[in-house]
């Protein structure tokens, strides 16, 4: 049978290649042996499938673009393979210099956060103001409920008589009757509802010393927390466990430092800055490990938080926001001590933006490092441009998420203003709505700024880091990937 012309042309080449490999020990696919150093290598390339790591004879094909992952071809002396080479990553000393620079920038900030934690530590909060005694919680369960008159004999039936069995408190096991008015803003109670009573501290046998203040929600919230932890552990495994530990650290800082320090009379903004710094360092390093990648995310978060603090203070003063909404006014009255209401507003901005910033900065640094690992030949500029394309998509959705989160939290307030009959301009410039607008826009500006800042720092750091193969084999060294492709094409 007559072979096709393409096969007849290709057969001698393969035969020559086989003879060339047999003619030298260790002959392979990387080149040929030059027996005579003075012999000039051929100027015309052989018609042979060439692996991406470079042509067999050390000459680049004119019609093929070089593979950025291919290992360089380094000429050797007589008796050595001309085509053999070794892949070289970024120099290790440059990576060490980058780590030193990151440490110089971050270590003083971490020390400042620790010093602030000591200086602003709570030493005991103020006593409640006279006449604002807090109710002591007493748990109970509704055992009977029926509609009755608010006043005996009025015949209107606008109240509900609830029989509550107390399960703790000064008269645990006793029943008491509570009258609850049936109004549009009053919750509806049924038999079996677990409720919380507020005891004023008066006569424990007098039903007038108690009032129903809330429902018990501990059981349902505990099950929801278990479901959340299970989802995080199933997907994140050990990284998920570290994330849960970091979440516990965040709650500990908020409950044991931030809130008591503000109650003790310290500046809310200073307390929030210190608390956010402690949370940032502890959470990011605990979750993602001590590395240059994590340090880059920490640096980007720190710069963005500083920008949010400056913008928040500037525009809160420019808009003359007092921070004295209904809840803050009631808080100041109950504490009986002067609290900087505007500082409390700024503290909420800083702490509220921290969680979203962590998400954006960690995502950007991970994107830069994965791009660098996928193509070790990318420099800082190319890494920045590629990662910014990812960052633009991320920040577009994150800003929308931030706006919707604040709008959802303020939905009852927005509904109230929509029923007031006031114009949109009047509603937007009112104290409560303007506060949410400033909070949302300042946080969004900090979020947008975090993308180029973090990406630029990550590109500079990653371009000077050594590229290490991934443990799962997906991000191997350039030399290994080039040889693998050459072997598959040869077959």
From TrEMBL:
Keyword Transmembrane helix: yes
Keywords: Membrane, Transmembrane, Transmembrane helix
Residue spans of biased composition, Basic residues class: 477-491
Stretches the record annotates as Disordered: 1-91, 466-491
Coiled coil: none
Top-rank lineage group of the source organism: Bacteria
Basic and acidic residues compositional bias, start-end: 1-24, 58-67
Keyword Endoplasmic reticulum annotated: no
Residues that span the membrane, as ranges: 100-120, 215-235, 242-262, 268-286, 298-319, 331-357, 395-417, 437-461
Protein name: YibE/F family protein
């Amino acid at each position: 049978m007559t072979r096709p012309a393409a096969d007849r042309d290709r057969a001698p080449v393969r035969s020559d290649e086989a003879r060339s490999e047999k003619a030298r020990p260790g002959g392979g696919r990387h080149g040929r042996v030059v027996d005579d150093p003075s012999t000039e290598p051929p100027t015309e390339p052989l018609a042979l499938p060439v692996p991406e790591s470079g042509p067999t004879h050390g000459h680049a094909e004119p019609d093929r673009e070089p593979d950025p992952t291919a290992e360089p071809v380094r000429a050797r002396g007589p008796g050595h393979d001309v085509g053999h080479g070794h892949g070289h990553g970024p120099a290790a000393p440059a990576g060490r210099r980058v780590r030193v620079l990151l440490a110089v920038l971050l270590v003083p900030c971490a020390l400042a956060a620790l010093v602030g934690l000591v200086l602003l530590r709570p030493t005991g909060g103020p006593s409640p103001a006279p006449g604002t005694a807090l109710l002591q919680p007493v748990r109970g369960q509704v055992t009977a409920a029926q509609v009755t008159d608010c006043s005996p004999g009025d015949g209107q039936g606008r109240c509900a008589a609830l029989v509550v069995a107390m399960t703790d408190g000064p008269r645990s096991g006793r029943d008491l009757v509570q009258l609850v008015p049936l109004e549009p803003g009053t919750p509806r109670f049924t038999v079996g509802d677990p409720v919380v009573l507020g005891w004023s501290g008066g006569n424990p046998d007098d039903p007038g010393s108690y009032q129903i203040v809330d429902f018990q929600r501990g059981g349902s919230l505990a099950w929801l927390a278990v479901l959340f932890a299970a989802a995080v552990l199933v997907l994140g495994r050990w990284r998920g466990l570290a994330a849960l530990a970091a979440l516990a650290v965040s709650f500990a800082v908020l409950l044991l430092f931030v809130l008591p320090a503000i109650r003790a009379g310290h500046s809310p903004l200073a307390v929030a800055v210190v608390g956010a710094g402690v949370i940032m360092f502890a959470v990011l390093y605990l979750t993602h490990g001590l590395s240059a990648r994590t340090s880059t995310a920490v640096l980007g978060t720190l710069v963005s938080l500083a920008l949010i603090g400056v913008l928040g203070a500037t525009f809160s003063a420019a808009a003359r926001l007092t921070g004295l909404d209904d809840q803050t006014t009631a808080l100041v009255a109950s504490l009986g001590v002067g609290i900087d209401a505007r500082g409390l507003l700024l503290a909420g901005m800083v702490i509220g933006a921290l969680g979203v910033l962590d998400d954006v900065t960690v995502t950007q640094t991970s994107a830069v490092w994965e791009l660098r690992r996928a193509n070790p030949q990318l420099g800082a500029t190319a890494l920045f441009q590629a990662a910014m394309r990812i960052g633009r998509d991320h920040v577009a959705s994150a800003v929308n998420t931030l706006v919707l989160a604040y709008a959802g939290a303020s939905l009852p307030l927005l509904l109230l203003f929509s029923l007031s009959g006031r114009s949109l301009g009047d509603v937007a410039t009112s104290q409560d709505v303007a506060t949410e607008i400033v909070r949302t826009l300042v946080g969004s500006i900090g979020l947008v700024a975090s993308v180029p800042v973090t990406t630029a720092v990550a590109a500079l750091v990653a371009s000077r880091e050594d590229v290490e193969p991934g443990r799962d084999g997906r991000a191997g060294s350039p030399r290994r990937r080039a040889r693998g492709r050459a072997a598959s094409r040869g077959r």
